[in-house]
Amino acid sequence: MTRSEENYIKTIFHLGGSDSVPIATNAIAEQMETKPSSVTDMAKKLAEKGLVHYKKYQGVSLTEFGIKTALSIIRKHRLWEVFLVKKLDFTWDEVHEVAEQLEHIKSEKLIDKIDELLDFPKFDPHGDPIPSKDGKFMIRDKQLLSDVPVDTEGVCVGVKDTSPTFLKFLDKNNIALGNTIRILEKEEFDQSLHIQMDGKELHISHQIASNLYVKLND
Amino acid sequence: MTRSEENYIKTIFHLGGSDSVPIATNAIAEQMETKPSSVTDMAKKLAEKGLVHYKKYQGVSLTEFGIKTALSIIRKHRLWEVFLVKKLDFTWDEVHEVAEQLEHIKSEKLIDKIDELLDFPKFDPHGDPIPSKDGKFMIRDKQLLSDVPVDTEGVCVGVKDTSPTFLKFLDKNNIALGNTIRILEKEEFDQSLHIQMDGKELHISHQIASNLYVKLND
DNA sequence: AATTAAATTTAGACAAAACTAAAAATTTGT
DNA sequence: ACAAATTTTTAGTTTTGTCTAAATTTAATT
Separation of CA B196 and C1' D23 in angstroms? Predict the structure, then answer.
């Protein structure tokens, strides 16, 4: 697998092409900041190799083998992210770019040893699940903070937007995974929230709330 | 810098092209298992970029900038090797291949943090010096075991041949860096040595002795 | 159902990095 | 010093991954 092939497989997976729901050429091109014609070329190549299902004009979806491959790349990406944060004191907004490179390193032993060094983490620094060696991963029941009713309490377990801009904003406002969140009030007008986070009270916009995942307390 | 450019720079450095001693196209091609014509093409490209001195038919040598670049790549390679051995329990014969990939990861912060995590090591698992951030490295006064007179004592500090075959052989015979070595007898006929290593006595061939570096005791 | 709009594919081209075969320069041997 | 051998370069191709522009198919709209 070349680096480029791996990036296509990963993107198709993230766009949902794993459930035999075909993904449009255009959507892939947009996500990868490339041209639809390039996607068509690669689609043919990946189909040749048995990684995707592809019929002209019908979009692309991953085969079983393609899904396995995607999960392996995602596993590497997320384990490296944990490594960078836990062992090298990177902040969660710094890890993505470097992990994009590290995920392509070819050595089964390397990633298994990293996994072991980190004590087999189940989630990455943004709260996303890390597939195990055999492709299984935990699906945590979580909801967007913006979808939660007033007066409920939960724990912040993930972010939807993982851009450095958003993550740095969260840092600045002391919003971190693991924090306890209670919704005190929801403003009808602009959907902004008045919340209590680890004791302190603060206001957050709908934009923010719709990019934070919480797990409700039982 | 592309990966290929980095590999050329590294090879030229290792062949001695850093002392403005030009290296022959053929020598580079052989070392890199490629064709001389490919080397010519790359030589032009690297000269364009100010990394090498190149005059037709006169071979290639690194510029100041080329040397700086080479040292930075070698620094990364060797730090990753230490990381693999010290933190992930790789054996010294396993590290080269993976480090060849890791050395191309582009992140200044990453390699500096790895350096820090390892407590700023000065030598890699094969005894080769690790350049510091500013390109300086220790040159240890060492000699090939085969060049040392009978009855002298020293410490094993490095290997010349770093092939997995040789390194595994050393492991099997409990020869490791840091071991104390005393030459008891040198066989005139085949230059083989009778040595004492950390107490135990053993015989080693000239082939072996000429690939082991020792630092003599004062 | 026909036409327009949008998405997708084809055809042809390009850059990077490699190769082969042939030409040119350098080195060697006598 | 000059022919032979070796080394190096040039010229032309290949592969991978990309692009543009044109053609084609599918989807949307009247």
Answer: 80
